[in-house]
Amino acid sequence: MSASLRRVLVLGCGLIGTSVALALRAAGVHVHLADRDLRAVQHAERLGAGLPHRPGDPAADVVVVATPPSAVPRVLRDAQARGLGAVYTDVASTKGRLLAEAEAAGCDLATYVPGHPLAGGESSGPAAARGSLFAGRSWALCPHPATSPKTLAAVAELVRLCGAETVLLPATAHDRVAAAVSHVPHLVSSALAARFADADETTLSLVGQGLRDVTRIAGGASGLWRDILEQNADAVATVLEQLVEDLAMAAAALRGRGGAAGDPPTDPLTDLLVRGNRGRELIVRARAAKVESLAA
Amino acid sequence: MSASLRRVLVLGCGLIGTSVALALRAAGVHVHLADRDLRAVQHAERLGAGLPHRPGDPAADVVVVATPPSAVPRVLRDAQARGLGAVYTDVASTKGRLLAEAEAAGCDLATYVPGHPLAGGESSGPAAARGSLFAGRSWALCPHPATSPKTLAAVAELVRLCGAETVLLPATAHDRVAAAVSHVPHLVSSALAARFADADETTLSLVGQGLRDVTRIAGGASGLWRDILEQNADAVATVLEQLVEDLAMAAAALRGRGGAAGDPPTDPLTDLLVRGNRGRELIVRARAAKVESLAA
């Protein structure tokens, strides 16, 4: 049980919202739940994620807005207008446009810090939720200059109770990183999986673990992901254009145009594979370092 | 122990060759091993994969050529010239060009059937080998019209002893499928990982399971993969060009050009995500059907 965080209201009982609620319940926090879909609230309640929010409930220490990205500014503004909590955060995977829209909508930025837990899954809805979803994961917080230190401290405490590690960075930097680590990989995984939308039995019989791994995230809810991509359109387009350039060059090299087989400097295919090896090594090493620091 | 397959010679003690040897040893087959790198042979022998091949050994029932793709025609021709076995196969992941080169090199096609086990991993060399690598996996065999029924039967028996399932298809069809299920996903995984070759600490701290999954195969040996891509250049380029087109259209849509947000027919991004969902569903279903048929 946390001394400073006794009561949390979660608005949105999808995968992330319900998982936050479960993690906080396990830490002894009183959690209340709301969703425009009453069945989602009932499902989350049956999982032990908390009690349905009722008008007249005392104000929460932190309100977590766990709706799709494009709904966050409106839900946040309404929640603040109704005085549902002392401090507000969200869990959307895009931050810049959302923060600008929240400001334009007249939200109180002193009591709001945008957040993004780097966790999730290809399943959605409360049925896929689990309290351990954030254990050992990073959780980005992107305070606005107007965000008060008290707001930031309260939400950082919520992150800690969920078992995650706070990473502080500006919203624009977050969006560039999120495009590279999450949004573009999702689009590319979808494009790879899309090649199999009309696949015949022989093709499917030859599918191995490699393709299963690279297409896992392509199972994500298309509506939610359309929203995420739109919210982070420019940063995603920038990373995607670089990737398209690399792949177009690889295709040209395979057609015998551009570059010669051989050493990395002259052979674009070897260069791409070697850079891929190096990037993969850093990705694996970063994970190993985090696992080690958690064990220490 | 198989009645028809008593003695196998494996030429090449890398991940696949050594794993084939271990699987066959577990089935009671006598296995002999050769590699131009003597340490690889010694390593495989210590793992219990078989005994080093010696001049004067009796001819094998099946010789497995487990070298990188581009070396297969030469190694096959030499092995046939020396009469090392009754029947020959290989395990390279490309088939069309290799078969044409084997024919041009004057190999005996009656005693040869090209093969490709759909298994592997991002690690290479005998140290990563295991006898269970092929359990429940597909193993493509691509007989030439000149391949004798006896040859095909012997190699199909070897596949069975390795715990895998034979999928018969022509070499050109194999290469089209392999480009889609394996070679293009590898290149794309490399291109995604390559974005992180110079990544800073903040970026790496925000890497989650999604990126780790889509970049797993990018850890593969770049030299071997350069060879595979070259051997299947046209089929890989064709699939890659379609993918580049999809991704370039997605980038344009994100920049506000081409298509409107909304329904799949008019919004290229939603269309791509929905086709990705459908393809992923078929990939998952194919795996579930195979696991079920293995359990039955």
TrEMBL record, chains A, B:
Name under which the protein is recorded: Prephenate dehydrogenase
Listed Pfam families: PDH_C (PF20463), PDH_N (PF02153)
Cited SUPFAM superfamilies: 6-phosphogluconate dehydrogenase C-terminal domain-like, NAD(P)-binding Rossmann-fold domains
Family statement drawn from the similarity comment of this UniProt entry: Belongs to the prephenate/arogenate dehydrogenase family.
Domain of life: Bacteria
Keywords, comma-separated and alphabetical: Oxidoreductase
PANTHER family named in the record: PREPHENATE DEHYDROGENASE (PTHR21363), PREPHENATE DEHYDROGENASE [NADP(+)] (PTHR21363:SF0)
InterPro entries per UniProt: 6-PGluconate_DH-like_C_sf (IPR008927), NAD(P)-bd_dom_sf (IPR036291), PDH_C (IPR046825), PDH_N (IPR046826), Preph/Arog_dehydrog (IPR050812), Prephen_DH (IPR003099)
Domain Prephenate/arogenate dehydrogenase residue range list: 6-291
